[in-house]
Amino acid sequence: MSVKPQKNRASRRALAAAAGLATVGALVAAMPAGAQERGHGHGKDHGHHKPARTVDVQLLSFNDLHGNLEPPEGSAGTVTETQADGTTKAVPAGGVEYLASSLRTARKGHPYSITAAGGDMVGASPLLSGLFHDEPTIEALNKIDLDVTSVGNHEFDEGATELARLQNGGCHPVEGCYEKGKKFKGADFPYLAANVTDEKTGKPILRPYTVWKKNGVKIGFIGVTLEGTPDIVTANGVKGLKFHDEVETINKYAKELDRQGVKSIVALIHEGGAPASASYDYDCDSPGAGDGISGPITDIAKGISPKVDALVTGHTHQAYVCTIPDPAGNPRLVTSAASFGKLYTDTTLTYDRRTNDIVRTAVKGSGKKGSKSSKHHSPAPSNPVSANHIVSRDQKPAKDMTDLIARWNTLAAPISNRPQGYISADINGRGSTAPEKPLGDLIADAQLEGLAPADKGGAVVAFMNPGGIRADLVHKASGSEGDGVVTYGESFTVQPFTNMMNVVNLTGAQLVSALQQQVSGSNEASPKILQVSKGLTYTLDMTKSGAARVVTDTILLNGEAIDPGKTYRVAMNEFLAGGGDGFAALGEGTDKLVGASDLDLFNDYLAAHSTASAPLAPPVTDRITVVQ
């Protein structure tokens, strides 16, 4: 059946309220067996004449928003653009006020338009959203008219029960409702989690797929997150859940959709790759570029059934529009729109009403036209294109988003604007491409100092995972109280997980193994270099491979070689202490003491080591020597 979007959203809210889902089990029990039908369509479709055989369906997509409602600061708020002379420049971008304007402008003149996302809409969010358990972001996405998204790993930061609440609504079980007389309504759009099942029932915890319908046009969406989600989320976040192979899951549900007569299918995959260039307008399919992309998504794309017509991806925060052949040799789009709402992808899917399928077209990034191909003997489309577009801050911001941000900022202001410390210059974290990051050093030092006292754990060294550093500390941040002031909102944006700190016993041999695991095993292809506290130094020789990259005879702690048989007290957040990010050796710790949160220790350190007249300078990154 065809449904109007307003009725569809209202009926879903009513069903969610009636279901009262509060646990994973309840969510599974209430999940409909069939596909969720949706039919937005932005614009007019008069339907007074016989429809043409083909119709162009606009697919707008983005990924990894991470609750960035306000424009992200520093390098996190720019995209790299290649200029006509071959040079590059950083272009400010992002902010939900501008994302909404960009999407609304892009939809004009397109009666068939779908907006989809590739996961991590929430989680690791700045304080404006994170303080309120990401309710502001869900509200913003509802207003943007998001039609569907896959889950990402960060949707599980607070567990499946909290994810169910974001989908179905209801006030937070501990903190209650944030605004008097207002109950959180939940997401108007379906979260898809085809490859995430309940351990007890074996059923997906959320819908595996949804079907968008309008005037006989049917397009199915299957949503998955990366199979390795348990390796990058705290154990409590994925408790009771199983994560399955992306390719097998997508192929399973593609067959199911095909049996239902849904021949046009898009996969939303929270896994990605790395393009050969950092420029958002890089021509991924240029001659000699090969696939133009590397990383996990390449093998995933090559294994997914030809029944799937396009892949919207994410997770790696990269920008690309590439074609990778499907198993039948047909060209297929693989796209990603960076992160934080800085880009959106505009793709034309040419739908054949006779076959109910998409006419495949080999396309180029940046709106370049490509050669045509089809899974069926269908008429050639009229030059479909796909391209990433900058969410420019030069355009007029969407007033409803400006009002939304102002409303939540008013609620957050008493906490967000509280000064925590002072810095003399930018201290880069997320924006640093070096293995050792200035902000990584600062965070690790804060953790060591806070947990070194005997009654706090007696730590002698601290490790920080690089992925947990979500932003830079910017000296002159917009809206701050003054140059160099670090507010609670800014420190929260750097460390939004508020992980509890652990101090454990590890042997010297286990410490060495942990350092080797940075560049071997699951981390060999994409090293995850731990940020280390002062006193620990060593050399990384990246000309070698695997564990040999860590030059063991250079590892010193306070000037002394690590003794394999000696026991050391080591501080780290609970994610690393659980063996996260492939650090199995860190998960072997014993005699655990649970300390304060990482954010509290960070703020304590800022307060103790900086004043307005004596701000904290960026640390000198001299702990890890890298040989290239």
Descriptors:
628 residues; alpha/beta; seven-stranded mixed beta sheet; 14 helices; 31 strands; 23% helix; 24% strand; globular; disordered N terminus
Radius of gyration: 25 Å
The neighbouring-strand order within the major sheet is: 1-9-10-12-15-17-16
Taken as a percent bin, the fraction of beta residues is 15-25%
Largest sheet, in brief, is: 7 strands, mixed
Summed over residues and divided by their number, the pLDDT gives a mean of 89
Q: How much helicity do the residues have? A: 10-25%
Structural class by helix and strand composition: alpha/beta
| End-to-end CA span | 60 Å
Counting H and I runs of at least 4 residues, what is the number of helices? 14
Principal-axis shape: globular
Strands, count: 31
Indicate the low-confidence ranges by residue numbers: 1-36, 43-47, 362-384
Molecular structure report:
The N terminus is likely disordered. α10 packs across α14. β6, α6 and β7 form a beta-alpha-beta unit. This protein starts with a helix and ends with a strand. It is α/β, with parallel strands linked by helices and 628 residues long. Helix content is 23%, strand content 24%. It is built from 14 helices and 31 strands. It has a seven-stranded mixed beta sheet, covered by helices on one side.
Write a compact overview of the structure shown.
The chain is of the alpha/beta class and 628 residues long.
Fold topology:
Elements: H1 5-19, H2 24-30, E1 36-38, E2 54-62, E3 78-82, E4 88-92, H3 96-107, E5 113-117, H4 127-130, H5 135-144, E6 148-150, H6 160-168, E7 191-192, E8 196-198, E9 209-214, E10 217-225, E11 241-243, H7 246-259, E12 264-270, E13 274-275, E14 293-294, H8 296-303, E15 310-313, E16 319-323, E17 333-337, E18 343-352, E19 357-359, E20 386-390, H9 399-416, E21 419-422, H10 438-451, E22 461-464, E23 485-487, H11 488-494, E24 500-507, H12 508-517, E25 531-532, E26 536-541, E27 550-557, E28 560-561, E29 567-573, H13 574-577, E30 590-597, H14 598-609, E31 624-627
